[in-house]
Amino acid sequence: MNSDLQTMGWVAAALVTAMVVSLIATPVVKNLAFKVGAVDVPKDNRRMHDHPIPRMGGLAIFFGFILSALLYVEMTPQFRGMLLGGVIIVVLGIFDDIYALGAKFKLVIQIVAALVAVLSGNVIQIISNPNVLSPNPWWDLGWLSYPATVLWIVAITNAVNLIDGLDGLACGVSTISALTMLVISLAVADAPVAVVMAALAGACIGFLPYNLNPAKIFMGDTGSTFLGFILAVMSIQGLFKFYTIISFAVPFLMLGLPIFDTCFAFIRRIAHGQSPMHPDRSHVHHRLIDMGFNQKQAVAVLYIISAILGLCAVVLTTSGELKAMMLLLALCAAGAVSARIFLSNNEKKKTEDKDHKEDQP
C-alpha cells in the first residue's frame, strides 16, 4: 500500500509540475514565436483559421515535460536515449516552424532521432502473434527489431503531426493517449512509465487553454512531432513488452485515431497517383467540418473517439479481450446512433433555413 501511495504521489507531482511550467511558459513562447517569425499565415483551404497565429507552442510543452521528467524520473539508458532523441525532434521542429523545411530532410532527421532512442535500448524485440489460431503465441523479431522499431517511432511521430489540423486536436488526443498509458502503467505496476506519462499529460494540459478554439497559439511541428515521438518510444517501454495479445493490440488502440488517419491518408493519396507526403484536405477532421460540424464539435467528436479507444485499451489490459471487444462494439453503436441523430437534425435545419430564404420576398 505504501508503495502504491508513493507511486501516486510521484505521478501527481510530475503531472502538476509539468502543467504549471507549460502554462507559465506558453505566453513567453508565444512572444518568442512572433519575434523569430514562427507564424502560421492562412494561405490555403486546408487551414481552418483566417488570421496569422504564432506556432512553435510545442516548445512550452517540451519545457514542462523535460523539467518534470528530470525531477521525478530515474535516469536509465533508455530514458536518456528517449530524451536525446526528443531534443533532436524539438530542434528540428523549431527550424521547421520558422523556415518550413523539406519533407525528405525532416524524415532523415526523424530517423536519426529514432535511431538514437533505439540504440539506447528502446527496442521492440518481441510482439504477440496477431493470429490467435497460431501455435506460436508471439514473434521474436530478431534482427528485424531495429528497423521495425525505427519504423514504428517515425510513423507515430508523423501520425500525430498529421492530425494537427484543428485547434486543440493533436494536443487533446495526445493527452488522452498519455492518460491511457498512465492508467495502464498503474494497473500493471509500472511506476517509471506512469510518471513519464503523467509529465507528458500535464505538459499538454497546461498548453491546452491557449490552444483550444479559438487558438491563441499553435503547437506547430515543434509540439506535434515531439508528442508523437515520446508516445511512440514510451509505448515500446510500457506496452510492447507484454508477451500476450495485449502487446499487439493496446498500442494500436491507444494511438488508434492518428494511426487510422495516417493510413487512410497514405492510401488515398497513392490511389490518386500522388506522393504519400502530398498535403491535402481530406483528413478525418476536414471531413467532419465538411459534414457540417464546427471546429469545436469536430474536435469533441474526435476526443470522444480517442477516449473510447483508450478506454478499450484499459479494459483489454485489465479485463481481457472479450470485455474490451464488447465495450468497443457497444460504444461504436452508441456513437453511430448519435452521429445519425446529429446529421439528421443538421440536414433538417439546413432545409428549414433554405425554405425560409425562399419564402422571403
Automatic annotation (TrEMBL):
This is Undecaprenyl/decaprenyl-phosphate alpha-N-acetylglucosaminyl 1-phosphate transferase. Its main location: membrane. Pfam families: Glycos_transf_4. The chain crosses the membrane at residues 12-33, 53-73, 79-95, 107-128, 143-162, 169-187, 193-210, 217-236, 242-267, 298-318, 324-343. It is found in: Cell membrane. Coiled coil: none annotated. Keywords: Cell membrane, Magnesium, Membrane, Metal-binding, Transferase, Transmembrane, Transmembrane helix. Its cofactor is Mg(2+). It is a multi-pass membrane protein. The keyword Cell inner membrane does not apply.
